[in-house]
Amino acid sequence: MDIYELYEEHYLILVDYYSKYLEVMSLSKNLTSKNIIDKLKSIFARHGVPNIVICDSGTQLISQEIISFTHKWNFEIKPSSPHNQQCNGMAERTIGTIKKLLKKTIDDKEDIHLALLAYRNTPVYNSYTPSQILMSRILRDNMPRTKEQLTPQLINKERYHLKLKEARDKQKFYYDRHTTNRPEFEIKEKIYYPEKPGSI
């Protein structure tokens, strides 16, 4: 879950980690916890209550009002570390893609809802679309579709899990290329370090 500001408008973005299915809701300029909770209730009523929601440490997303909501609706909210965003890399990348989609759609004065529908019907990891993974069907859009394409059909979980693993392995490979092992050294005296980067 993330809040994105674009052209003085705020959007609540939620991405299902498994299927990459997304929900985007306008918050207007109302960033209160109550407004965010109302939007979450609407989304959860459509898709069900998640077990865990990962978000950043924004004040509105970890307020006491939000915490009370998580207890009442029986789910857990986990703020990610502001200095370690790559710990949730795949979701972060999907949210980044959605932000670019929103900006391009608004800049080109296109219909944002048609853009979101197209995204939900676009295959992920060269396998299935988010709507197929989540709902076992392709959503009818403004593209020509046959009856067979629109007929609900269960996905091949083994195939999708294989594609998912390949994508994760590929992401890890490219990330590891820019990392190096720290040299071993013998500690002879106390070492002091800041708890947060830049705090000293």
List keywords for this structure.
200 residues; alpha+beta; 3-stranded antiparallel sheet; two-stranded parallel sheet; globular; RNaseH-like_sf; Retrovirus_Pol_polyprotein; Integrase catalytic domain-containing protein; nucleic acid binding
Overall description:
This protein is an alpha+beta fold. The protein has 7 helices and 5 strands.
Strand order of the largest sheet: 1-2-3
Total number of helices = 7
Structural class assignment = alpha+beta
Measured between the Cα atoms of the first and last residue, the distance is 31 Å
Task: Let me know the average pLDDT.
Answer: 85
Give the topology string: H per helix, E per strand.
Answer: EEEHEHEHHHHH
User: How can the largest sheet be summarized?
Assistant: 3 strands, antiparallel
What kind of oligomer do you see? Answer: single chain
**Beta strand count:** 5
Strand content: 5-15%
- Round the Cα radius of gyration to an integer and report it: 20 Å
Q: How does the overall form come out from the CA principal axes?
A: globular
Estimate percent helicity: 40-55%
Unreliable residue runs: none
Topology:
Layout: E1 2-6, E2 9-15, E3 22-28, H1 33-47, E4 52-55, H2 64-73, E5 76-79, H3 89-107, H4 112-120, H5 130-135, H6 147-150, H7 157-176
Parallel strand pairs: 4-5
Antiparallel strand pairs: 1-2, 2-3
